[in-house]
Amino acid sequence: MEYIKRELERKFMAMNEVFKAVMVTGARQVGKSTMLKEMAAGESRTYVNLDNARDRELAKSDPGLFFQMYKPPVLIDEVQKAPELFEHIKMICDDSDEAGLFWLTGSESKKLLREARDSLAGRICILKMFSLSQREKAGKSELGEMEFTFDALSERAKNFPPNNIQDVYAHIWEGGMPGTIGMTDEQRMEYYESYIETYLMRDAVDDNGISNTEGFRKVLRACAAFAGNLLNYSDIALAGNVSVPVAKDWVKVLQSMGIIYLMEPYSNNELKRLIKTPKLYFCDTGLLAYLSMWTGKETLMNGAASGHFFENYVVSEFLRMYSYAKSKMNMTFYRDTNQKEIDIVLEENGILHPLEIKKGSNPEKNSIRSFHLLEKSSLQIGEGGVICMTEKPFPLDANNNYIPCNII
């Protein structure tokens, strides 16, 4: 399969210029190794994969000898399988002024991140990778983050075909796992079944010590059933037939594995009566569709949960965009105890960009009626709008626009 250029490449190379070690983490099979091997092609960088039992044993038993065999600059795949290497990586980094000595990949886990940060503080940059975005699949990985003025949106829209609900739900249904590109629906269903059994369940047991795999599988499916909703541990525990404390622990595990994303609620000292419960989303909509038992994009598009899937898709696209962006953007949602809600609030440089998510092509203008609630905060309110199925950007008022979902 032809390599698909990833948005993270730009940020990775920028960090590689100043850090001695750069590590890419993320869920299994999102393309971490493929990206780094593609970027290393043509340069004299040694490659070693710790899935190889002999190399893994050497790395664990004799890190010094390991680095005699595999001298920097080196790309080490699945570094979480030999955390013994970190202390030796630290020593090599301290003996050199050269940046980019170590390229590392590791499957997402709290243990790996803690060990890397503790051992390599100040020497390592840790970047997170997700499955393919719709931009990457369309060959538009260079577009980067968005501006929300009408002119900027119109210019961005020139890079995409007119918005089309069939195409959008095809992307939602397929998801972004590189290994599923070009698969039939039947093949994709088997892929996700294998993905859950081969990777998620094994990591749950090996990395997180979970022995009740059947209960963990039920909690995973329960999370899928409640995607796009406020996180309710009691509901998840009931559906998974486990206690609430166990449900809380396993949700944290799924979050640390890069499977789910918890979007925090907006908070501001000047605004009262804001809720404190996060909303639950899946990082990959293809896995979400599989877990939710949808059998095709048409049934998903016309089903009762289509709106929740549409919202999850928009949130996950923004999650990728701002994880790979040059500047930091804080993404939250607004909800108060009066049930007033704004689906997404993007905060950058002290400016708030409120966004609503609607599946329709021509949502009502009062969709933005809650935006004024943010005026009570001390921050400036910038451009925003409604992300929907409109074919092209269209002004709602002086500050807000209808935004085609396929350009995010």
Tell me what you see in this structure:
It is a single chain. With 408 residues, the chain is of the alpha/beta class. The protein folds into two domains: 8-129, 3-Layer(aba) Sandwich (Rossmann fold), CATH 3.40.50.300; 134-184 and 249-407, no CATH class. It is built from 16 helices and 14 strands. It has helices at 8-16, 32-40, 53-61, 63-69, 85-94, 110-119, 134-137, 150-157, 165-174, 185-206, 213-225, 233-240, 244-256, 285-291, 297-302, 306-323, and strands at 21-26, 46-49, 74-77, 102-107, 124-129, 260-263, 279-282, 330-335, 341-348, 351-357, 380-381, 384-388, 394-395, 400-404. The strands form three sheets. Strands 8, 9, 10, 11, 12, 13 and 14 form a seven-stranded mixed β-sheet that branches. Strands 2-3-4-1-5 form a five-stranded parallel β-sheet, with helices on both faces. Helix 3 packs across helix 4 (63-69) and helix 11 packs across helix 12.
Q: What is the count of DSSP helices, taking H or I runs of 4+ residues? A: 16
Radius of gyration, in Å, reads 22 Å
Shape: globular
Amino- and carboxy-terminal Cα gap: 25 Å
Number of domains: 2
Keywords:
408 residues, 16 helices, 14 strands, alpha/beta, Rossmann fold, five-stranded parallel β-sheet, 2 domains
A few lines on this structure:
The protein has 2 domains: 8-129, Rossmann fold; 134-184 and 249-407, no CATH class. The protein is 40% helix and 17% strand.
